[in-house]
Amino acid sequence: MADTKRIGSLDVFPLSLGGNVFGWTADQDASYAVLDAYRAAGGNFVDTADGYSAWVPGNHGGESETIIGEWMAARHAREEMVVATKVGAHPERKGLAPANIHAACDDSLRRLRTDRIDLYYTHFDDESVPVEDIVGAMDELKRAGKVREIAVSNISPERLEASLAASDREGLAKYVAIQPHYNLVHRDEYEGRKLELAQRHGLACVPYYALASGFLTGKYRPGQNVESPRAQGAGKYLGTERGDRVLAALDEIAADRNVPVATVALAWLAGRPTVAAPLASARSVEQLPALLGAAELALTAEEADRLTEASA
């Protein structure tokens, strides 16, 4: 069993299961199967958002939360799961005005069929709202017992620093985690001011796009056509100098270790400063072992350095 990681007061499995595919590329049965397999492997850290999957024709947003909530009820699994969701992107609850945060939280609680959210993120920053008002609303949710810990996803370093300062200054609940776009071929956005702030304030990092829309699974290669809704996202890395270097290094290490390429990419990310649990999704049970393997694979310093250099 993989050792758990700490995010605030929460003990989490070192690979967070992304729920963005639930209600999108995975229907209810497929979603349940993935959740069952993740739980059976010792996983307890599921990530979703109120806006998932509003982009699917006929959906309204909240489908992923609903599937997770119904699965937890059917499996009597709520007490063992750490559930993370996000506020601000549901079509009917956009933005981070305090009243909207409160209403969106109540909506998420109903869909998740629970009385508390373990880790509640602001999904996208809303610069029309002062950081004091956003943190103040999140603090109220925590004091009310509706939220156990608060966190932040897409935000500028300046607004993040101001938010953390407001919490310290006013005695409000403080972010314990950050969910940035971060992986082997997308490092600059997090490595810098955001990483410095995370280190200084003790924020755990839960990176999204940990596999670069599937590029870091190794299944996307020049001249190959892969049927996937994410193919376009992965395609932007194909044939680039950095992408080629990274794939070559991943291929070598994966072959040496006899593990999938995705496992190595996630293991590199898991070993980076502040990272508690990379975030990755699986639309089928067959995709899950490569993700779960990262919780057990410890790269050598030489292997990690080789990947770090290749991705520079």
From TrEMBL:
<dbReference type="Pfam" id="PF00248">
    <property type="entry name" value="Aldo_ket_red"/>
</dbReference>
<dbReference type="InterPro" id="IPR023210">
    <property type="entry name" value="NADP_OxRdtase_dom"/>
</dbReference>
<protein>
    <submittedName>
        <fullName>Aldo/keto reductase</fullName>
    </submittedName>
</protein>
<dbReference type="GO" id="GO:0005829">
    <property type="term" value="C:cytosol"/>
</dbReference>
<dbReference type="GO" id="GO:0016491">
    <property type="term" value="F:oxidoreductase activity"/>
</dbReference>
<dbReference type="InterPro" id="IPR050523">
    <property type="entry name" value="AKR_Detox_Biosynth"/>
</dbReference>
<feature type="domain" description="NADP-dependent oxidoreductase">
    <location>
        <begin position="15"/>
        <end position="310"/>
    </location>
</feature>
<dbReference type="InterPro" id="IPR036812">
    <property type="entry name" value="NAD(P)_OxRdtase_dom_sf"/>
</dbReference>
<dbReference type="InterPro" id="IPR020471">
    <property type="entry name" value="AKR"/>
</dbReference>
